[in-house]
Amino acid sequence: MAKFKKRLLIDVTDLDLRIEEILAESDQPALEEPKRGKLLTLFRATLEYGRDRLRRHHLVGARGKYIVQGHTYVMDQLLRRLYALSVHHRAALEEQSPEAKEGGPLLPRLAGKIRQRMKTRKPKETPFALVATGGYGRGELAPCSDVDLLFLLPEGDPSKALEGQVEAMLYFLWDLGIDLGHAVRDINACVEQAHAELEIRTSMLESRFLAGDQKLFDHYKATLNSEVLQHNPAAFLRAKLIEHHKRHERFGHSMFYLEPNVKESPGGLRDIHTFFWISKYRYQVQRPRELVAQGVITEEEFRTFTKSRAFLWRVRNALHYRTGRREDRLTFNQQVEIASEFGYRDRPGMRGVELFMRRYYQMAKQIGHLTQILLQHYETGNPESGENKPHLLEDVFYLAQDKVIVDRPECFNDHPPRLMKVFEVAQRNAKGIHPETLRWVTQSLSLANRAFRQNSEVNSIFLQMLNGKRAVAWVLDRMNTCGLLGRYIPEFGRITGQTQHDLFHVYTVDEHSIRAVEALRHIKQGKFSEELPLSTRLIKQVPNQVILYLATLLHDIAKGRGGLHEIKGAEMARVICARLGLAEPSVELVAWLVRHHLIFSRTAFRRDINDPDTLAAFAKQVANTERLDLLLLLTVADIRAVGPSVWNSWKATLLRRLHARTQEILNRGVFGPAELVELAEEKKQEVRALLRGQKEAPGMERYLERYYPDYLIYYGAETLAAHYLSLVAWLDEPLAIVLRDMTESETTEILVHTQDHPGLFAMIAGALAAAKTNILFANADTTKDGMVLDVFVVQELTGKPLVDPKRRAEVQEVLQQVLFGKVHPETLLNKNLPRLTKVAGQGFVVTTQVVVDNDFSDICTILEITTLDRPGLLFTITRSLSQQGLQIATSKIATYGERVVDVFYVKDLFGMKLTPGKAQRVTDALTKAIEELDKDILPSGRIFESASALLEGPPATEEAQTAAV
Questions:
Q1: Global pTM value
Q2: 209 sits in which H/E element
Q3: pLDDT, tens only, 602-653
Q4: 22, 37, 469, 705 — which has fewest CB within 10 A?
Q5: CB-CB neighbours of 235 under 10 Å
Q6: How far apart are CA 646 and CA 85, in angstroms?
Q7: CA–CA separation, 447 vs 760, rounded Å?
Q8: pLDDT per position as a tens digit, 350-360
Q9: Could you give the CA distance from residue 106 to residue 24 in angstroms, rounded to a whole number?
């Protein structure tokens, strides 16, 4: 848009005329009633008009700089006039002679007096100075930011008149609705406070004269410079650096928070402020551009700061305008709205909001990287000075101040592979890279061209680093931060700063990929030997670990390109690996891993891994144990790098089980009907051996004979024995509810043994939801005598097992109340659970999808339901399935942030798979039922014709009603 002029935001000439009209009404002081009320109305209208004009400019694309400067300008004009009204108007009235008051119009004479006094500013008539500080002092007033003012007083005790003037101004500003931060001090108090508090000293660096005694302000600046700024500057620099590091620690030293703080997060505006504060303090400059002339930063670095700051200003302005308050956190909802406001539109593979956030993170990354280099430079100083003289490592690489440096910036032009070599030297010697050298690398990135990418020496160095003994993730991160990794692998550059707008993926795609490599390195180093014993053992057996690291680094390389990223990613991985000079078999193995990097987790978390058909299909895809092992390691690293709370022991357990059972098939072959019968008999023998000699052993045979082979094959021998021991005392009762600790997976297993009945699964799911538990897995096994064992694996909503005795009793009580028909699940849900508007996924749109698979299993139809996570969802789904007359054999519950994927293995009333027509009716019913969840409450009333028919009556004994281990 065309540049607008700040003076057009408000008509100052008209403002002055209207002020003069109000003043001319009487000879009362301006800030006393009734003049005060009229002036307040005038100032408020002027302020609202100026702010409204600025908001209109913002909405049509005004640069962030103009908006913050525009708000500063409007506030400056009002404050200067307020000062004049408080100080000069009273003095002008006092000088009016009786003759002047009686003869002729008052307005011109009085206005002239005020203007004359404002020009001359005699000390005795301007008893204090009005000073802007902080962000307002910098001239960067955001739409809803507070206005920081210093009322600078002359030395000595203030007079009553002076106190009255300051007080009158403050009350006027408060009544005007200004969010004010103020201090009233003389110069000595300012110096004292500056020495005592770092924040005040920093704010004073931004001091800007507004009105009043110019000489007093000049004296204040001179005193501040001599007694504060020049007093132990090294201590101030250290304090600001510590403050900078602590602020970064609060955000985990990551620029890629899901909901970043535009001001405080790493790579935010505060990083720029910190750099300029330290520069002003150290180099005594008033404007950032002066740092270019002094050689502190280059012209290109200054442009980077300016461009990035302008973008962040505009984002922050949008946040303030949209929320109507001082809001700096870029929430998910605001991300969507601001992306639309800024003109970002959806495109194949990426939503508009993801494009916007990618731009945000790219800017944050530039700010964070450059600020970090320059601040580290302040800390380390000149590597050529001091006692720690550089000593040669090799070629042009030296060690100084315990960091790797190069002898001159031109060395990269002389031999471009040194751009890559400097990182390898640092990695091999376990040293950091000096910030000045990193700056030179960043300034030389144009050398990383096509010839550089095809250079065999460069490729050899990169692969050597990838297979290094230490700091592999560290070196990838440093290369990525300075931009070299994205220039060397342009495909990786495309995913730099790329986000996925959901609650599941905490990091940008590039950071996630590097963190996944780091997870592999930690596994290799044995850091997770107790938590991940299988992965720790397997990674030591991988013959060529470069293949695994490359596949991990490239597994999401096609994100944001539309379509299935694993398919496109495999093709891109082939091109990249060939360019790196890998042999053809290695190229194909990396491509295969990228192509199939999702199947391990999808099978483990969304399919019944005890089902022979599932295992056979997965084993066929994997084909051999080498791929199986590599795929498990890649999957573990991938999940652990998604976010801090994504990995858990339950997922680890599922992955280990799938690996073990697939390995057994790969070694022994696919199980046929005869082998399954034989396997069931083997399980019986194992259970007999486990229970041999125990007093409960005699009843075990009867227990096992009641079940079909599926149950025996499904669980391990230890689990079968545990089920029997937990239930043996209540097997003859109509209902038994047992809670069993699952230490390995940090979950709780709930066993419900009772008479089989349509809708039972839904009733249990509803009761557990009402009891505020998180259901991870459920399985139902009917017996030959009409009973059923429903097994639910649950956790607390916090992701922990149910260990508190009171909580366990509460869950049992809810289950009993529901299963005895004393209360309906939907009644409990409506009473106990928060509504959709209160869940974490509010503001996200997840289209409900129901996928029907009739081919994966020989005996069941698989329903895969993807939708927005919300309270009561599992109960709603299972209730709908029950109403459609379906039997639920197994369910797998997987949550990915705001999105949930529920998988059900189902049969019809006759134990058959669903026909296409029936499947369509089920799909329609499920979709409608889920849509009903968006209403205020769950539908009330009975959902089962005879809930109480589940049991003939209460259990025969009190112990049976409260059965628990």
A1: 0.79
A2: strand 208-212
A3: 999 988 887 888 888 899 999 899 999 999 999 999 999 987 778 888 888 8
A4: 469
A5: 10
A6: 61
A7: 68
A8: 889 889 998 99
A9: 6
